Amino acid sequence: MSGCSAAAILCLFSASARADDPKPAAELPEVNVTAPSPIRARKPVVPRPNPTTRVARGGTRAPAPARETPAAPPPPQQGVLPVVTDQFATVTVVPNEELRRSGAATLGDLLNSKPGITGSSFAPGASSRPIIRGLDVNRVGIVENGIGGGGASDLGEDHFVPIDPLTSDQIEVVRGPAALRYGSTSIGGVVSATNNRIPQALPTCSSAPFQSYGLPATAPAAASAPCVTAETRTSFSSVDRGVEGGVLLDAGGGNFALHADAYGRKTGDYSIPGYPYLFDQTRPVNGRQPNSAVQNDGASIGGSYFFSGGFIGAAITQTDALYHIPGTDGSDNRTRIDAHQTKITAKGEYRPDSAAIDAIRFWAGATDYRHNEIGLADVTNPATDGIRQTFTNREQEIRVEMQMMPVNLRFATLTTAYGLQAGHQELNAPSPDNPGTVFNGLFGPNTNNRVAGYVFNELAFTPTTKAQVAGRIEHVSLNGSTPDFPADFLPNGAPQANIARNPSYTPKSASVGLLQDLPGDLVASITAQYVERAPKAAELFSRGGHDATATFDIGNPNLTIETAKTVEVGLRKATGPFRFEATAYYTQFSNFIYRRLTGVMCSDDFDSCGTAGANLNQAVYSQRNALFRGAEFQSQFDVAPLGTGIWGIENQFDVVRATFPDGTNVPRIPPLRIGGGLFWRDANWLTRVNLLHAFAQNDIAPIAETPTPGYNLLKAEVSYRTKLDPNMFGAREMLVGLVGNNLLNEKIRNSVSYTKDQVLLPGIGVRIFANLKF
C-alpha cells in the first residue's frame, strides 16, 4: 500500500484487494468487432447448466430449449491500443473502458483526435458529426446496433446525432470495402455504435468474491438462475460546469433477457481561452463561449427471447435534446434547437441445423424525429422569439443477411454472405418565415425509397492468406420539388412556383481485397473498390436559407451519380510489445457533389440576392471531379516494466489532401496532425499524457474560407479500476478517474467547422468520473 499517499481516496477501495498486486498480464485484450463484415466466425461458447431439463410450475420436470451463453471474456487492460488485423481495411475501435474515460458527449467530439477522423464541432458538446478522411454528412454513415441512427445530422451541421456515447458500449469506425454493407452513402466510412438495448445473451451474475483484476476467478453461479445487474455512469466537468449520469439495468431468467437505461446531461456555456470572434471585436464574452449550453436526456427499454439456435429482440428508445448554437448569428438570435426522437428497433439471429446455412440475421428500425430551431426573428425585439425552422424525419429500414456454411473449393475455403436492405424516408423542413413564397424552409416535403442487395465472399487460400470479393446494387427513387431557378441563379425574376421532381438512380459498387499474414505477427492488406453514390434529398431539393452553414442552398435536380475509385494499402501488428497500424489511400472521384459558393450574397429570400448588407452566401450544389489521398499511422510501444506495471510511448499521424483538377482545394479539409505521449499501466491503474499538434491549414477553397492556425492539444489522465466486495461497498466493480483536457489552454479552431472564425473549442478543463457495476 505504498502508493496510497498519492491517491488516498482510491486506496480506501483498493485496500480490500490483495496486497500482492499481480504483474501485468501477458495476454493483450481481444478486439471483437461486428460492424465491418456480415461474415462472422462462430465464437466459443459454454453450455448452460442443465441444458435439457428445467423445473416447471408444479414441480414437474419439462424439456427446456437448448441455449448457449458466450463465455465471459477476461477484463481487458486499460489503455491498450486496439488494432484489428482480421479485416481488409482499417477499423478504428473505441472500447468500453475508453468510452468511460473519454466522457465525450458527441460522436464527433469522441473521435476528433483519432487518426483520419475529425468532428464537425458546429456546437462542441452538442452537435459534432464525425468526418472521415475529409468526407462528411452524405458520405459517412452512422448506425446504432446495425440500424441507421436517424435524426437530421446529415441535413445540417448544427443538428445533433441522436446516439450518445454515454449509453454506448463500443464504437467502431469502418472504412473501405466493408462500408458496402450499409449503402452507397457511406463512401467515407461508417460509424457504428453498439450497446445492450437489445440483449444478445442472457446476463450472468457471479458469486465470486471481490478480487483485483488479473487474479483467478472462481466459477460463476449457474447462468440459469434469475439475474439482475446494474451499472451507473457519472461525471463532472469544470470547463462547462457540466454534470452527466446514466443508469443501466440488465435482467434475465429462463428464456428472457431485459435491458433498461436512462441518462441525462446538463452543461452551461463553456470556458474559452480567448476572444472567439475573429472579425468582430465588439461583442461581450466574459471568458465563456456565448450561447453554448447543452441539456439532453434519453431512456430505452428492450428485451430478447432466446430459443434453440438463436434469439429475437426489440427495443424502444426516446432521445431528447435542447442545446444552444454558438457563433455570431446564434448568439444574436439566441438560437437553440429543441429535438426529439422516438426509435423502435428489432434484431435477431437464427443458426439452423443446416448443412448449407450458417446463420440468418435481421435488423429493423422505425424512427420518428422532429426538431424545432428556435430564435429571434428580430434581434431587437424579444417578443419575436419563436420557431424559425422545423425539421422532420420519418424513416423505416430493414436489413436481412444470410451467412452460408464454408465450402471447400480445393484451392480455397469459400464463405459467402448475402444481404438485402430496404428503406423509406420522409423529410420536411418548413419555416413560418417568408410566408407565401417558395422559400419557406430549406426544402419542402420529399421522400426517398431505396432497395439494395449485396454479397460478400471471403476465400481462405491458406490460414495466412485470405481474399474478399464483394458487390452491391441498389435502386434509389426520390420525389420532391424545387423552384425553376434562373440558369445563372441570379435574381432575374425569382421563381414563383415549385416544380415536381422524381429522379431515380441505380448505383452499383464492387470491391476486392487481399489479407496476408507476414512474419513477426504482421498483417498486410490491399483493397480496391469502386463505389457509386446516389445524390441525397438535400443536394437535389434545397431552395432556402441554411443558418448552419450561413448559406442560401440551391439544390440541383440534374445531379448524376457520384463515383469513387479507391486503392488502400495497410500494415498492422496487434500483438507483442510494439503494436501499430499504418494505412495509405488514394481516391479518385468522378462527379463529386459539393456546395459551390458563388460569391453572391443573399438574405433570407432569393429576391434579395446581391443586396447590400445581405448575410447568406449563395451556394449551389454542383459536380466536378476531385482527388483525395492521405495516410494514417498510430502505434504503441511497451518499453519496460516499472513497478507493478509497464511504461511505454505512443504516437500518431494523419494527413489528407483533397483537390479539384485545376489544383484548387476542396473546402474544409482537416490539417496535417502529429502527436505522441507516455503511458504507465498495470492491472488496476492507467496514467497517460499525450500531445497532439495540428499544423496550420492554408490549403483552403478560393471563396468564403479562411486559413486556420495550428494548435497544440495536451491531455492527461489517471484512472483506477478494481473489483470490490459487494457486502462492504454495494458495488462489485469500480472505475474512477480524472482527465485533463487542453491543459495548455490553447485557442483551438477547427478547420472543418463552418463556424471556426466565431467559435473556439473549450479551454482548459478537468473531468472526474466514476463507473460502478452492481
Q: In words, what does this structure look like?
A:
There is one protein chain. The chain is built from six helices and 38 strands. The protein has 774 residues and is mainly beta. The strands form five sheets. It has a 22-stranded antiparallel barrel. The protein starts with 7 loop residues before the first helix and ends with a strand. 49% of the residues are buried. The longest helix is centred in the first third of the chain and has 7 residues, at 8-14.
**Regions with little confidence, pLDDT below 50 for 5+ residues:** 1-26, 44-74, 207-223
The average pLDDT is: 87
Q: How many DSSP E strands?
A: 38
The helix-and-strand class reads: mainly beta
How far apart the termini lie comes to: 26 Å
The helicity comes to under 10%
Largest sheet: number of strands, sense, barrel closure: 22 strands, antiparallel, barrel
- Number of helical segments? 6
Radius of gyration computed on alpha carbons:
26 Å
Strand content: over 45%
Give the overall form: globular
In brief:
The chain contains six helices and 38 strands.
